[in-house]
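Chapter summary example.
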Amino acid sequence: MSDTESEEQFSERINPNILITGTPGTGKTTLCELVAESTGLIHIDVGKLVKEKGLHQGFDQEYQSYITDDDKIIDELEDTLSKGGNIVDFHSCEIFPERWFDLVLVLRTNNTILYDRLEKRGYIQKKITENIECEIFQEILEEAKESYSPEIIIELQSNSLQDMESNSMRIEEWVKNWKSKKIQE
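The structure predicted for these 185 residues follows.
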């Protein structure tokens, strides 16, 4: 498929694609599950997909995580995302083509809360520290700003269950508005 054909296919979608990204522990998966349930969008957990489909270059023993293969991830998701109707959950965003997403949400969490969440997951101290530093320096937010048009990026706080529920309702409303606008075009 040529780039022009791919662009046309993405512009003809009747359902949006949303990317929810953020430092590990900010609540991406939980929010994606809530939004998928309320909107009918398909939740794609890229981390899970990497494990299940072998979209990696091996396992890093020190960090206890897979070394993702960005090209394999892109190849795996291209057709699915071209159809629309997906909510993608991944801790990074710069690997994905801009044309894939209609909305990019960057979840942010207070460092104390984030530390506790990562510790409960059993992360090693070095991994916790690096993720906390990532959050402090807004690395994922900056990555999003460098990769996508500013009008589709929204930063959301994700410190509590109330934040999660509010964010889910906000996204549900956005999806309704997007679909309504698409029908009018």
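To summarize the output: Helices lie at 3-11, 28-39, 46-53, 70-83, 111-120, 125-136, 139-147, 161-184.
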